[in-house]
Amino acid sequence: MKQKLLALSIGVIVAGSQTAVAAPNPFQDARSFAMGGTGVASSSPASASFHNPALLAIKHEEKHDGFGLILPSANAKFADDEDVVDQIDDIQNEIDTFNSAVNRNDQAAVQASAARLSSQFSKLDNDTARVDVGVGAALVIPNKALAVSVFLDGTVKGTVRGDISDSDIAYLDAVAAGAPPAEIDETTLTSEATAIVGGISEFGVSFATALDHNGNTLTLGVSPKYVSLVTYEYTANVASFDDDDFDSDEHETDDSTFNMDLGVAYQFGDSGQWITGLSIRNVIPTDLKTKSGISMDVDPQATVGVAYTRDIFTLTADLDLTENKAFGFEDDNQFISVGGEFDLLDIAQFRVGARHNFGSSNDSEGVEEDSQFTAGLGFSPFGVHIELSGLVSSTEYGAAAELGFTF
Q: What is this structure's pTM?
């Protein structure tokens, strides 16, 4: 499923009930990924469209103020401390063992297999796995008068959960105790597994301009964009669940629309070392319903940030002003993020970061979001940028990579 979600995110970027779930989180470039997800006040011009278009017109160090290209940037995160998909595979293998024992009338083997299945079903109940994948690219020409960037990105979030019925466990316990068995198929047991996947892709152009304000710089940015949405909702009996089937056409809904991001930034200090920023993504609320009517909401997301930069280091922090409602089986999220970068001779960059979710719990009993820690390395010889980043938390791990150019 992880591999298929990566393929789906690439496809999304190229192509373009009353329960509410949110869209995938906004795309993060590899540098932001390594710095705790920050970027509203600290992004380079090449990645500004992903975080705050106003940063296109901010005066950066000379190495960042020319023509820039990101092609591509990709990241993936995976949370599955209960090994949900593996558990389902193990259950299906044990069902084969159970049925084989029933067919050869091996009562002892039937009872032993039923006991194992009962234990496996109990462990799987409400266990959840989550995968996040993102791919992005950008072309930028920074300029204080009118900076322009063309960008595209795609993000996909998927969750899988087991939903085990009490009647199935009662039946297996009875067979384990000696009750007459029947061969297991989709009519014998009613337990299910559900996969819910949502994807969003964006293609847009960012514009920004700079205004002088008492010797400091105020910049304004806007990113009109074309947005494509897609959802997949796949529910199947545990006995026949196949994670290769989740993205078939019969489980898909899709739509497209126009939207807009807005940004503002203010640069001050005796050498412009301070930058504050505000970004509002997806100004126009929209949604897309899955096959069963679950709504994937794309709501406005506001974030403020501050950054302090000197020749060899940057310190930055972001704060989400709006809460992102849970997608599928997970908690709501609203992050406070911090990050830092040390630049060695404009050739190598060392980055660390952390962020903490203070969003409310929605009692989903799914994948919890708490504190995440990040780190990364950058190499930038002769205008070529190679970025590698990693993320770890108590429930999740992830990585990002990026190739970029500055001229």
A: 0.88
pLDDT, position 30: 97
CATH class of 2-16+22-406: mainly beta
| Distance between CA atoms of residues 315 and 342, nearest Å | 9
With beta carbons less than 8 A apart as the criterion, state whether 212 and 148 touch.
no
CA distances from 315 to 29, 62, 127, 276 (A): 17, 19, 38, 12
Strands 286-289 and 335-344: unpaired
Q: Which of 272, 271, 301 is nearest to 286 (CA)?
A: 301
| pLDDT given at position 61 | 65
Map tokens 């497209």 to a residue: 256
Contact 401, 30 (CB under 8 A): yes
Task: Count the residues in the chain.
Answer: 407
Contacts of 180 (CB under 8 A, 6+ apart): none
Rounded Cα–Cα distance for residues 366 and 159 (Å): 9
Tell me the domain boundaries of the chain: 2-16+22-406
- What are the pLDDT digits (tens) for 261-303? 999 999 999 888 999 999 999 999 998 988 888 888 889 999 9
Cβ contact 22:297 at 8 Å: yes
Per residue, the 3-state secondary structure of the chain, as one string, reads CHHHHHHHHHHHHHHCCCCEEECCCCCCCHHHHHCCCCCCCCCCHHHHHHCCHHHHHCCCCHHHCCCEEEEEEEEEEEECCCCHHHHHHHHHHHHHHHHHHHHCCCHHHHHHHHHHHHHHHHHHECCEEEEEEEEEEEEEECCCCCEEEEEEEEEEEEEEEEECCHHHHHHHHHHHCCCCCCCCCCCCCCCEEEEEEEEEEEEEEEEEEEEEECCEEEEEEEEEEEEEEEEEEEEEECCCCCHHHCCCHHHEEEEEEEEEEEEEEEEECCCCCEEEEEEEECCCCEEEECCCCCEEEECCEEEEEEEEECCCEEEEEEEECCCECCCCCECCECEEEEEEEEEECCCEEEEEEEEEECCCCCCCCCECCCEEEEEEEEECHHHEEEEEEEEEECCCEEEEEEEEEEC
